[in-house]
């Protein structure tokens, strides 16, 4: 097969249009591509869905030689190669899942310069034989995907990435582009140092994902709340549900299935074959819900994930941003929903306390958790908070729960003092420590068995907290924990005071708290209409059946070819076709996402489906 692009005559924009079928570059894509095509090094920070792939794929096509793409996820290499093949590019991968014949074939193609892109796992570069192989071909470019994996204190550190600094030493003339969707200023600096990219040009896009609606709700009956969300706002949609433990992944998946939702589990406790099969189904079928631990998701480039739900608190803002970022890559409206409660704080503080690692490491974990808690408890726009965390500015977005139904803040100093003095008295007068439940029962003046057993009704604080309900008291405890004015200890999550508690008890410090809105936000019509990049094509009345017919054609075609549906065409492309059906191939070629190769391959079939 011949090269797809004549580098002498075809500029990047022409390649974008002819090969990928898109009209225009997005954001800084053009500058990045021109810089790399000209042989420059680049560090690209761009959110998920921002369009990072094209930043190295177009240079790969335009520059002479083979682009070597380093990616940590071997399970997804096949899909990436399939997607490139579908637009007519020559791509291959080398990894441990291949048999020897296949490997030899790809190696030969690489050496002969018959590939545009070669995908490799980072560990492969640690092997002599791979390095020798690379020496036998002509490398046009190195692309380092998921570059944040090189950051040691980041949340996805992979030791194999550290060895990537050798690329530059061994092949000093080959330009390198490193890309990531996650980076605080500190992580970005670490990536640049470790990959020897400090002299590279840095491209930092806005981390805003305007089409994602962020919502954080108080956790009551999490599974039921989730089911409500899926039924009312996302029926039939594909989505990811994150849980902390394997057990809760299994239980949640079963619960959803029992309630008529097609859901699959994914966690490290399942055998590799089941994990791979479930991932395949999620990528290939429409409208599946994946219930998973955070072991799932990196590199998943399914464009039409409509929601990401967290049933447990993520450990860091970076993690939260990464995980929620998997929603809505196609730019269409999507939901990021998190249910969060007192138990989350107790559990995570406990996990940090009992984690191995030195004090410095535990401090880092605690700082990450504190930032996440601050995001949960904020009365300001969630998006502004998130962006600020990544060192970027924003103004209230109108598309997050705090913007849609603003919570009030209230002066919680007095309740805080009551709760803290209960903890203090138990400790001073009785030499006892208890969890939140018992403290709240005492404040509410409840004569429970446990209260009677410990004679807690004789404490002076007994019954002094009648002004708040039990769930409000839980909110008080949660927020005190979040603000570091109270701490938890031991296996039972008993409450203890912190140095800062004394300031509240001595009235030298006030405590501001968040009151949950009566009616939690749900996506309003206005918010639904928000989208990013490719504007959502509203299906006109009557076009729905046509869209469904196109989807059915796509499902059958994808199945026949053994590729994910989105490799054939994205939803956005099918919507555009259904909304304004083209009558000729020439008209069809003007639809976004219909490039030369797909037009030749599917054009007639699409027109036939429209004519049915
Ligand atoms: P990232 O890797 O940054 O998460 P992708 O490269 O997967 O993002 O791109 C996200 C989506 O946007 C993909 O569906 C891709 O085809 C589409 N896309 C990227 N660039 C453009 C563009 N210039 N015009 C239209 N669609 C684009
Ligand atoms: Zn907002």
From TrEMBL:
<keyword id="KW-0347">Helicase</keyword>
<keyword id="KW-0227">DNA damage</keyword>
<keyword id="KW-0233">DNA recombination</keyword>
<dbReference type="Pfam" id="PF16124">
    <property type="entry name" value="RecQ_Zn_bind"/>
</dbReference>
<dbReference type="InterPro" id="IPR006293">
    <property type="entry name" value="DNA_helicase_ATP-dep_RecQ_bac"/>
</dbReference>
<feature type="domain" description="Helicase ATP-binding">
    <location>
        <begin position="33"/>
        <end position="201"/>
    </location>
</feature>
<dbReference type="Pfam" id="PF00570">
    <property type="entry name" value="HRDC"/>
</dbReference>
<keyword id="KW-0547">Nucleotide-binding</keyword>
<dbReference type="InterPro" id="IPR027417">
    <property type="entry name" value="P-loop_NTPase"/>
</dbReference>
<dbReference type="InterPro" id="IPR001650">
    <property type="entry name" value="Helicase_C-like"/>
</dbReference>
<dbReference type="InterPro" id="IPR002121">
    <property type="entry name" value="HRDC_dom"/>
</dbReference>
<keyword id="KW-0862">Zinc</keyword>
<dbReference type="InterPro" id="IPR014001">
    <property type="entry name" value="Helicase_ATP-bd"/>
</dbReference>
<dbReference type="InterPro" id="IPR032284">
    <property type="entry name" value="RecQ_Zn-bd"/>
</dbReference>
<dbReference type="Pfam" id="PF00271">
    <property type="entry name" value="Helicase_C"/>
</dbReference>
<feature type="domain" description="Helicase C-terminal">
    <location>
        <begin position="222"/>
        <end position="373"/>
    </location>
</feature>
<feature type="compositionally biased region" description="Low complexity">
    <location>
        <begin position="520"/>
        <end position="532"/>
    </location>
</feature>
<keyword id="KW-0238">DNA-binding</keyword>
<dbReference type="InterPro" id="IPR004589">
    <property type="entry name" value="DNA_helicase_ATP-dep_RecQ"/>
</dbReference>
<keyword id="KW-0479">Metal-binding</keyword>
<keyword id="KW-0378">Hydrolase</keyword>
<keyword id="KW-0067">ATP-binding</keyword>
<protein>
    <recommendedName>
        <fullName>DNA helicase RecQ</fullName>
        <ecNumber>5.6.2.4</ecNumber>
    </recommendedName>
</protein>
<keyword id="KW-0234">DNA repair</keyword>
<dbReference type="InterPro" id="IPR018982">
    <property type="entry name" value="RQC_domain"/>
</dbReference>
<dbReference type="InterPro" id="IPR010997">
    <property type="entry name" value="HRDC-like_sf"/>
</dbReference>
<keyword id="KW-0413">Isomerase</keyword>
<dbReference type="Pfam" id="PF00270">
    <property type="entry name" value="DEAD"/>
</dbReference>
<dbReference type="GO" id="GO:0004386">
    <property type="term" value="F:helicase activity"/>
</dbReference>
<feature type="domain" description="HRDC">
    <location>
        <begin position="540"/>
        <end position="612"/>
    </location>
</feature>
<dbReference type="InterPro" id="IPR044876">
    <property type="entry name" value="HRDC_dom_sf"/>
</dbReference>
<dbReference type="Pfam" id="PF09382">
    <property type="entry name" value="RQC"/>
</dbReference>
<comment type="similarity">
    <text>Belongs to the helicase family. RecQ subfamily.</text>
</comment>
<dbReference type="InterPro" id="IPR011545">
    <property type="entry name" value="DEAD/DEAH_box_helicase_dom"/>
</dbReference>
<feature type="region of interest" description="Disordered">
    <location>
        <begin position="508"/>
        <end position="535"/>
    </location>
</feature>
<dbReference type="InterPro" id="IPR036388">
    <property type="entry name" value="WH-like_DNA-bd_sf"/>
</dbReference>
């Amino acid at each position: 097969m011949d090269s797809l692009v004549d580098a002498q005559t075809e500029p990047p924009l022409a390649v974008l249009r002819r090969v990928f079928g898109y009209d225009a570059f997005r954001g800084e894509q053009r500058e990045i591509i021109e810089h790399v095509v000209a042989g420059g090094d680049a560090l690209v920070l761009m959110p998920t869905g921002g369009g990072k792939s094209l930043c190295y794929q177009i240079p790969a096509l335009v520059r002479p030689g083979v682009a070597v793409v380093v990616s940590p996820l071997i399970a997804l290499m096949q899909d990436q190669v399939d997607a490139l093949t579908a637009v007519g590019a020559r791509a291959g991968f080398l990894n441990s899942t291949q048999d020897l014949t296949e490997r030899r074939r790809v190696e030969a193609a690489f050496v002969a310069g018959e590939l545009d892109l070669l995908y490799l796992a980072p560990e492969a570069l640690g092997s002599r034989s791979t390095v020798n192989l690379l020496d036998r071909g002509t490398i046009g470019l190195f692309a380092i995907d998921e570059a944040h994996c090189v950051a040691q204190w980041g949340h996805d550190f992979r030791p194999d990435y550290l060895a990537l600094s050798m690329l530059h030493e061994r092949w000093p003339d080959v330009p390198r582009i490193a890309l990531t969707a996650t980076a605080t200023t500190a992580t970005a600096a670490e990536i640049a140092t470790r990959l020897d990219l400090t002299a590279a040009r840095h491209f930092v896009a806005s981390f805003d994902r305007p089409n994602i609606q962020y919502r954080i709700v108080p956790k009551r009956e999490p599974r039921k709340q989730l089911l409500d969300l899926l039924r009312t706002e996302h029926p039939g949609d594909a989505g990811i549900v994150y849980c902390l433990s394997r057990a809760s992944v299994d239980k949640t998946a079963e619960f959803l299935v029992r309630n008529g939702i097609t859901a699959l589990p994914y966690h490290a406790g399942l055998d590799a074959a089941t994990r791979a099969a479930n991932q395949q189904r999620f990528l290939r079928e429409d409208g599946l819900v994946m219930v998973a631990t955070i072991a799932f998701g990196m590199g998943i480039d399914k464009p039409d994930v409509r929601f990401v739900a967290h049933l447990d608190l993520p450990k860091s803002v970076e993690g939260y941003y990464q995980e929620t970022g998997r929603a809505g890559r196609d730019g269409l409206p999507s939901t990021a929903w998190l249910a969060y409660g007192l138990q989350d704080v107790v559990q995570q503080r406990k996990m940090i306390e009992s984690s191995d690692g030195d004090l410095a490491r535990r401090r880092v974990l605690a700082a990450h958790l504190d930032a996440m808690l601050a995001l949960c408890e904020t009365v300001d726009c969630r998006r502004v908070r998130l962006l600020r965390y990544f060192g970027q500015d924003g103004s209230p977005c109108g598309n997050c729960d705090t913007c849609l139904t603003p919570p009030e803040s209230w002066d919680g100093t007095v309740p805080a003092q009551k709760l803290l003095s209960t903890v203090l008295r138990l400790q001073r007068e009785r030499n006892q420590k208890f969890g939140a439940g018992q403290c709240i029962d005492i404040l509410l003046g409840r004569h429970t068995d446990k209260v009677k057993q410990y004679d807690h009704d004789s404490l002076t604080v007994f019954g002094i907290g009648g002004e708040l309900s039990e769930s409000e008291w839980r909110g008080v405890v949660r927020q005190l924990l979040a603000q570091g004015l109270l701490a938890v200890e031991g296996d039972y999550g008993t409450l203890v005071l912190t140095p800062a508690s004394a300031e509240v008890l001595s009235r030298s410090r006030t405590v501001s708290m968040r009151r949950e809105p009566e009616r939690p936000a749900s996506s309003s019509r206005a918010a639904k209409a928000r989208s990013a990049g490719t504007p959502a094509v509203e299906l006109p009345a009557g076009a729905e059946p046509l869209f469904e017919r196109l989807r059915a054609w796509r499902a059958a075609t994808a199945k026949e070819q053994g590729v994910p549906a989105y490799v054939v065409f994205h939803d956005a492309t099918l919507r555009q076709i259904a909304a304004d059906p083209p009558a000729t191939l020439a008209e069809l070629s003007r639809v976004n996402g219909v490039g030369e190769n797909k037009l030749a391959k599917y054009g007639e079939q699409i027109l036939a489906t429209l004519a049915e």
